[in-house]
Amino acid sequence: PIEPHPHPRPHHRPSPASSRTTPHRPLPVATTAPRPPLSTVSHRRDSRKDRDRRRSSTRATFYDDPSLSYTIDRPITNWDSKRREWLRLNPSLATPDRVVMVTGSPPGRCPNPGGDHLLLRFYKNKADYCRLHGYDLFYNTALLHPEMPGCWAKIPLVRAAMVAHPESEWVWWVDQDAAFTDMEFRPPLHRYRAHHFVVPGWPYMVYTARDWVGLNAGVFLLRNSQWGLDFLDAWASMGPQTPHHDKWGRVLDAEIRGKLTSFADDQSALVHLLAKEQRRWRDKVHLESGYDLHGYWEPIVGRLEDVAAAYAEMERRDAGLRRRSGKRRSFVTHFTGCQPCGGAHNPAYTWQGCVDGMARALNFADDQVLRAYGFGHTNLNDSAPIRPLPFGYPASSRGGR
Question: What residue spans carry the region label Disordered (predicted)?
Answer without folding.
Answer: 1-60
